[in-house]
Sequence to fold (556 residues):
Amino acid sequence: MKTDIEIAQEATLLPITEIAEGIGIDPDDIELYGKYKAKLSEEYLKRIEDRPNGKLILVTAINPTPAGEGKTTTTVGLGQAFAKLGKKAIIALREPSLGPCFGIKGGAAGGGYAQVVPMEDLNLHFTGDFHAITSANNLLAAMLDNHIHQGNELGIDTRNIVWKRCLDMNDRALRNCVVGLGAKADGFVREDHFVITVASEIMAILCLCEDMEDLKERLGRIIVAYNLNGEPVTAKDLNAVGAMAALLKDAIKPNLIQTLEHTPALVHGGPFANIAHGCNSVRATKTALKLADYCITEAGFGADLGAEKFLDIKCRLAGLQPDAIVLVATIRALKYNGGVAKEDLNTENVDALKKGIENLEKHIENLQKYKVPVVVTLNSFVSDTDAEIDFVRSFCKERNCDFALSEVWEKGGDGGIALAKEVISTIEEKTSDFRPIYEDSLSLKDKIEKVCTEIYGAGSVLYAKTAEKQLATLEKLGFSSYPVCIAKNQYSLSDDPTLLGRPEGFTMNIREVYVSAGAGFVVVLTGAIMTMPGLPKKPAAFSIDVNENGVITGLF
Fold:
């Protein structure tokens, strides 16, 4: 069996100019990054603003397991299937982070015969967007420390600095550190922290902004610290906005690449869904809606994380209206949720499936609360049996969900035609009456508890004393109208990754709360969630190499 990278490297790619021309974009309207990657020009993006929108399709999934669900693979394959049916569709995805690529999760190009390419470029440096975000983030950190060193005119309380440095790599040793050691000229000694780049507020800002003007306005609102009177100090106060924007002037432009079957894909931005809002950029999504009849996008991890944030944060802030949601599951993952060990997942076990399908049931119920039609798809494996497939199909139909098998990993677009037809008929026959799960007018606590109880299934919410004080401060500062971005482990609906299936009545533990004022949401940290991951004992980096001809190996 060929690996994903072998399939990708054997593919014949079309010049990106041809992909662009296929969706009506002239060569003069793109900025080339080699032969197979390009950015869309600002001039072109402005020219298409008044075009009507196509249909917006969100792809999400059940909680991830070691068995794998294939959400990105399904998204890519669905886009290819739409093209097979003669429909004008564009895929809108996030860019992968280097952290998972060299860690344990892997990349984000899809898999099998449903991939976006060039996959090596995408999973590594791509067009440099993440580097630009990292540089802008760390420029702000440097200007903050320099301001303190140069006399601290703003009266910053050095015990209340909230801006963190970032790096797009899993490096646990940088979670907590001390800066400024050495001579007096080496800066003010203080405790500091790093987050992974995908958790940086600047990543969130880039993915939520509408244009350069909006980007600069949002950058200016970033709170970096508080002064001795407890008042916020912002990036604008530090006079950092212009320089940061200069670093981001190209990163703000959506990237155009292609699938293995030459379907266009806009891949832009990459916030994690377990510690950020987990969706590709608003600019890429809105551009895809202007260029095609169907925009197929995805949100990270399970529907309790990525989809909730897509619907409650991205759609709310960007004025988007999803027309349908595709919920991806696998029989293997459902059996895992039912207590089957990973090594036994290839054996038929309808009893375990009946137990584990509770996880799928909860995600169906959650998504239906947003009043958007839901289509469930099973990402097919050769070990799936007719009895297991029939049980899942009946289960979904009983819950007013359309259903289709997906075989895109093995067959590419041809394997997604049944799903594509189901999605099209769902959009044509059912109405989306989308509304977020909570109103802006609720207090921050009420919003947190709404998500924790209605989406996760918690029985109660427990706040650490620190979190209680932070919430009170944010309410006092006027941030109560912001949506909440809850950072939680991805493996369980709860904050305990060992509670599989559909846990109920548990306590959600809130340990820290802070505002991302530029992004426009309040971040809520639960359980033991980390904003800087670590590498596993045997990281994927062990297997990655490049030969004498420059061909990369081992990248999945």
Summary: Residues 129-149 form the longest helix (21 residues). The CA atoms of residues 47 and 403 lie 39 Å apart. The first strand starts at residue 30 and ends at 32.
